């Protein structure tokens, strides 16, 4: 593992299988002299390589450091720094003196970054002492604990072979006793030896052996799961430094690289004042309907009666125009026949979508999105009133404090509904980086009088069987009891007696369901459990979900593809409804510079968000869809046709409306043979390719040849566009995945 | 993205049509114009904002993020369990004085 390697030449990189990347993010607001005055984020991505990966096609992520043996840190209390290290962030915004956000600032508020601005503008001629490069961050982002303020007096120093920074001890071990709250630790990240680093606290220093391997999303790691302890207490994989002016950083950058010869620097300047660009919303406004619109309601009824999701999609895309015509008349907004709050929308960004690539963890957006999608398309119409999905944050908020305290925060969430009118309550839970699913059946039933078909049961589905369910069941039973009391007993003036849910009247049953054989798919399992359950709700609650052969693990891989296709289709549909101006607003300007990797010189083109490019080109290229062989999918079950159809629909939706029907027919005809896949498929292939951690130069020539799928651009238009697109994506991905290859003098 | 143009369903305060995008003058008393909103994060830290009912909440979110030094992409704003739309306004959401916005970190999971 720690074998020595001496690779100093750049071209040796290409041969180097070993890739571990490290990322430093510098997030700074621009100095006031900058005309733009945007808040920007500067990232330094360095990578070193010192490990053997079995498969150099693995994507290398940004994870740097972890403390496994975190308990071995011996912090020394820092009396002097008390009260200084962790500044109270809330200088303003107290109850007595709330932050005032008046509309008067509307026009220019974006130009004025809030908070302190490190206003040390450096003119072009100013000298940088290359031996003393210091970054003065304000905030240090640390894994799950982003709110840590760094000691302003302690710069981050880039030294010959290490990076040194100081941060409050509590930021690496928040659960530590409060008496140590104000001590600081200095972290020295040795560039040459990224598998370990030092934590120094005054004159004592502890070398922590870190297990970066376990924090890198590589196949290598994922195929060999190890039990992880203290994950949440781990040192983060990203270091984010705040408030460095862009000019300052640009001046420093070459020296940083000089100072740290073993780090390959990559810099990305992005705006942080804006959130990531949303590529799809669900539900999207174009699918809303209005109560008065009888036609649409009929449509919806048809949809509901028709459990085939693809048919639903057809109706949806065809009826979009009708709905839009009636936008002005809307009084009650409906989505799929149900009253709907137009602000209750899940927004999916490009990064969320990337999480559906194999081996990636799913996040709350994807889970929330797909649970809603299940509700809208896969739940039988007669079951619609029986199933309720909580969102992914419900359990999180519920468990922040004791349940009775947290209940007051949660109670409003269900103010408009009676959860005890539902047969099944689905509660997705994310704890310790693991998704699990609770299904509470027939909570309103009396346990003693219930039969096996409607018995109140707490079904817990854990695709790893790793979580202890005792706490979860206790908290949720507490919540249910409170909800019963506040929504049933109190409104009825005690006619309905209080009900305490306990292990007698709401016994827990762990479902015997297929389990994941890796460490990355639990989110997908959750979604698949939920979908299968909703398609055919369990009947026997004496032994609920005793289905070890419920589905095959292959279905899980397919599920990622399916969800991805659904989202891409939505994105494409919705891009038609979005005015260009909207995109311009959201475009994130990205400047890319690399020192060791010569990206395509077209910096300009990389400065726009690549999804934009892709979407635009998609539209222009729709006339010539790319033929693509179908073997990639390997789908044999019923879902196959779903995917095919949906992929075809991607095509349809962005065609002109009048063309829709014709093409639809054609697409369906071609369904048995090769499937006509839209441009977006090509994007996917390129994307996959991009994630492979080979060097950019490496990838370009081999891009098409190494792909299993033959892409044959049917007309010249595409061919012309081909290179720019892929270049843009190459650029983007080499940054986004922060997987630049690096050379290191090994350990 | 254009959902902002629509008044919310639960527009239960008197300020109908108080959307940012609308040109109609909002007829409210000055005292009703601004409301206090409490933003609570997962560590139960509270930040109070005073915001006009017609101001898009994007401003509150931006302000919160830059003050706290967090990226908007790493947190979610929840109002009554709904993800907060950047373009929604307190009026369109029917927010009342001293309403609470929850801030939750994004959740990811795959194993463990």
Automatic annotation (TrEMBL), chain A:
All copies of domain Ubiquitin-like protease family profile, residue ranges: 346-533
Compositionally biased intervals (Basic and acidic residues): 627-652
Highest rank taxon of the organism: Eukaryota
GO molecular function, one term: cysteine-type peptidase activity
Pfam families found in the cross-reference section: Peptidase_C48
Location of the region described as Disordered in the Swiss-Prot/TrEMBL record: 1-36, 291-342, 592-652, 701-723
Any single biological process term in GO: proteolysis
InterPro entries: Papain-like_cys_pep_sf, Peptidase_C48_C
Keyword annotations: Hydrolase, Protease
Compositionally biased intervals (Low complexity): 296-327, 704-716
PANTHER family per record: UBIQUITIN-LIKE PROTEASE FAMILY PROFILE DOMAIN-CONTAINING PROTEIN (PTHR47764:SF2), UBIQUITIN-LIKE-SPECIFIC PROTEASE 2B-RELATED (PTHR47764)
Family indicated by similarity: Belongs to the peptidase C48 family.
Protein's recorded name: Ubiquitin-like protease family profile domain-containing protein
Automatic annotation (TrEMBL), chain B:
InterPro entries membership: Rad60/SUMO-like_dom, Ubiquitin-like_dom, Ubiquitin-like_domsf
Domain of life: Eukaryota
Pfam families, sorted: Rad60-SLD (PF11976)
Domain Ubiquitin-like: 33-110
Annotated segments matching region Disordered: 1-32
Name of this chain's protein: Small ubiquitin-like protein
Organism classification: Eukaryota, Amoebozoa, Evosea, Eumycetozoa, Dictyostelia
